[in-house]
């Protein structure tokens, strides 16, 4: 058993307040109700995988958690901070809740190290040397210790994605959000990214992940949330959703993706 698994199983009652609480979230675009009363508690060390059909609202939910999308109503708390409150600075939230997107948006004119250093310098206010050292450490953590001086054009898609992960980790986030981090990558390039994500699971990182990688969901998730038409249909441990779902819609969904 790893340390992180021990930590999860030995949590005491006083420590069980969720790290992230999503409460009755509603979001529409025009007439389309995309999130319809979503509530979800994520505890420290949880790895929650969001699955659901295309257009069910998975990305929108992640974007609300990172304040990239404003909610219509409902609340999201990180600890006791209301992320959605008008006086909460989105930039503070984005340091504490790192996000990795499907599209890899690195600065092309900066090396991997400088891409990671940018936030450390500008947001954390670190001096150049400290930021350089920290960037090296984070790139090492994602297996790119030998690529710190490479420019994005010299890196594979999977390596670029790992630079993006290192950049988010450098902010010391409490939670990491992943929005289909491997779906733009060929299978062989995905594996390095999935290995880094598995390593973060081992380290006990709290993660909310949208992915079609069902092997990661089965092996790495502490919970699976099945979202359909903007509502949570079922949530439970991976064994339940994969093997013994309570809801017919969940069973149909997992059957449909097993034929893909
Ligand atoms: N900025 C936007 N403006 C208008 N409609 C949007 C916007 N973002 C998302 N939508 C719509 O909201 C619905 C849910 O989109 P969302 O991307 O959250 O779904 P998803 O479950 O992540 O889908 P996918 O698996 O295809 O990425 C879709 O119908 C989408 O077209």
What does this structure look like?
With 260 residues, the protein is of the alpha/beta class. The chain has one domain (20-258): Rossmann fold (3-Layer(aba) Sandwich), CATH 3.40.50.300. The chain contains ten helices and ten strands. A hairpin with a 2-residue loop joins β9 (223-228) and β10. Mean pLDDT is 91; it is low at 1-14. Adenosine-5'-triphosphate (ATP) is lined by residues 29, 32, 34, 52, 54-60. Pfam families: ABC_tran (PF00005). GO terms for molecular function: ABC-type amino acid transporter activity; ATP binding; ATP hydrolysis activity. Belongs to the ABC transporter superfamily.
Short structural summary:
GO terms for molecular function: ABC-type amino acid transporter activity; ATP binding; ATP hydrolysis activity. The chain is α/β, with parallel strands linked by helices and 260 residues long.
Radius of gyration: 18 Å
Distance linking N and C termini: 34 Å
Number of strands: 10
What is the typical, i.e. mean, pLDDT? 91
Regions with pLDDT < 50 over 5+ consecutive residues? 1-14
* Structural class category: alpha/beta
Give the cofactors and ligands.
adenosine-5'-triphosphate
Overall CATH architecture = 3-Layer(aba) Sandwich
Strands across the major sheet, in which order? 6-7-8-3-9-10
* Beta strand %: 15-25%
């Amino acid at each position: 058993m790893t340390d992180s698994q021990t930590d999860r199983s030995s949590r005491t009652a006083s420590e069980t307040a969720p790290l992230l609480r999503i409460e009755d979230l509603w979001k529409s675009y025009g007439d389309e109700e995309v999130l319809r009363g979503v509530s979800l508690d994520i505890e420290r060390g949880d790895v929650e995988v969001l699955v659901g059909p295309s257009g069910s609202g998975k990305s929108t939910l992640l974007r609300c958690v990172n304040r990239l999308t404003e909610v219509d109503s409902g609340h999201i708390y990180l600890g006791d901070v209301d992320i959605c409150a008008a006086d909460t600075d989105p930039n503070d939230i984005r340091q504490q809740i790192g996000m990795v997107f499907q599209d890899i948006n690195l600065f092309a004119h900066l090396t991997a190290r400088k891409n990671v250093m940018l936030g450390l310098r500008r947001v954390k206010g670190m001096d150049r040397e400290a930021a350089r050292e920290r960037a090296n450490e984070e790139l090492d953590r994602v297996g790119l210790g030998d690529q710190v001086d490479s420019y994005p054009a010299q890196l594979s898609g999977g390596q670029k994605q790992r630079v993006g992960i290192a950049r988010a980790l450098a902010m010391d986030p409490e939670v990491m959000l992943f929005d289909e981090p491997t779906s733009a990558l060929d299978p062989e390039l995905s594996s390095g990214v999935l290995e880094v994500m598995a390593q973060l699971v081992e380290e006990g990182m709290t993660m909310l992940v949208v992915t079609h990688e069902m092997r990661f969901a089965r092996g790495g998730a502490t919970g699976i949330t099945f979202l359909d038409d903007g509502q949570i249909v079922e949530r439970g441990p991976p064994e339940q959703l994969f093997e013994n779902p309570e809801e017919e819609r969940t069973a149909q969904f997992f059957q449909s993706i097993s034929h893909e």
